[in-house]
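User: Can you help me understand a structure? I only have the sequence.
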Amino acid sequence: MFVGGGTPSLLSPAQLASVLGEVPVQAGAEITVECNPETVTEERLAGYAAAGVNRISLGVQSLVPSVLASLGREHDPADVARAVSAVRAVGFRSWNLDVIYGAAGESADDWRRTIEGVLALEPPHVSAYGLTVEPGTPLAEDPARAPDDDVQAEDYLAAEAAFIAAGLANYEISNWARPGHECRHNLLYWSAGDYRGFGCAAHSHTAGRRWWNVRTPERYVAAVREGRATEAAGEELAPAERTLEALQLSLRTRAGVPAGALAPEDRAELDGLLVPEGDRLVLSVQGRLLANEVAVRLRVPDRGDAVSRGPGGAGPRRRW
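Assistant: Let's start by predicting it. Here is the structure, written out as tokens:
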């Protein structure tokens, strides 16, 4: 279970417990709550843990005040340190720090300070995402604030080098973890699994059909109160489409794809972007920067080739 989007840590422990209590959960399930650092207290986290939460994801974004301001965040670096202390005090074994690079006005030194500050907190898992421009947002309306691809590539390489040196292994393009701390929620997505989303704009997938709910909270709440379906739209994938999409998702992980998923001529043209590992191909660090170039050339392997063994301890979330 993953409670994310918006600011779920504004919920009191009792409120969160009432939501989690409606969902049948298997023993040992991973239950994550995303938290903004300024909303975290030891008392609140202890209440979450009592409700069954066993993993926390902190939306740090940056450890530089000017960058946080440009992203519209309300917390400061001291809030992050206090939140991590609370996470440790309550006894959470697995937790994540989530950061973003490419914000307007962020310098290479700013990003370095964030990386160093994150590593000083010794997290078992870090997610680092390049800032993306979504239609209809203030960022999209101000081209001067749009991220630069080359700068983001340099930021990514700096993060990769620092995280690997600190003992965090990359298991999906935007995710690094110590052994045993990979996010199961992420793994589910990148292995093309089934999932059910609740809430406005939430997405679901079952057996090749995916659908998404109405986007705004007001419309979602109204639909639930009136007993109407909350689904806004959906699509059905043909078997071949599902297989190809599973390859594209697995490509993002350290599991890679079967060697037969790329024609020999494409493998030659993509020299340096892929690394052979047994009968599979895995993105190199440079390949992660150009993952879409590789993904669009994937093909369903000939019958007899393993299509996907799944990420195995590798897997996801979001963009790049």
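Now, to help you interpret it: The chain is about 35% helix and 20% strand. The first strand starts at residue 2 and ends at 3. Let me know which part you'd like to focus on.
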